[in-house]
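Example record used in the benchmark description.
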Amino acid sequence: MIAVVDRIGQQISQNISYTYQLFLLTYLSFRSTLVGQTQGWRTLYGVVSAQIYFTGWQAMPLIVFLAIGSGALVALQSIMQMTFLGGVDYVGKFMVMIVVRELGPLLTALIVIARSGTAVASELGSMQVNKEVDALRSMGINPLSFVIFPRLLGGIISVICLAFYFVVFATLAGASVCRLVKGMPFDVFFTSLSQAAGLSDVFVFIIKNFFSGLIIFAVCCYQGLQVERSPHEIPQVTTKAVVKSTVYVLVFNMVLTLYFYMDYIMSFGIL
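Model output (structure tokens):
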């Protein structure tokens, strides 16, 4: 029993130390960009744009496909359940609760992890093996401002935009399903949707996607920089980046959901 408690304590301390390292990497990258970067803002703009193009624009077809399928399934399940309860007009509220609050940010983050997070971790690992990071330092260029910051900023912008388009296409798919299956007019569906959505939902949506993008690319950049000598380390750090960023994003989403909807949960007498 004591050994189990000690192991749990060690794991908690390691997670705290790892979180601190991520925070420090993020802070130093933003600080070095705003204070000590020497390569020029136009160069940084090009790197950030390339990251947004890869992470955001090239992932759009997959996001649209998942959004249409998810929105159609959520609307169909909502219609089937609400038909028995006599409240088909509440389908819009279910779309907000499931798609906008939870499904959109989570699925978007998982797609970005699988597609772009792995690419960033392996790219930085290759740069470490090929001594490209040391070469940047020798030329007077801070890798934190030229390599890390553009990926963090581009990743955050891409995740927010992808999640927004996910919600848009999922909502359109849900409205189409309601129209085809139950004959619900589009104006009724979108009226129900607008009445269900509030400023708190918009705030939670932005916060979730902002920090999900920050977490994903901070973890992947940090893991990529952990490569020291051998190219064989690159797959290992890439796997760790996927696992750690997925766990961190899931925990963050759950904690934020519990925090913002604590009053709603307490009204049911759960807490």
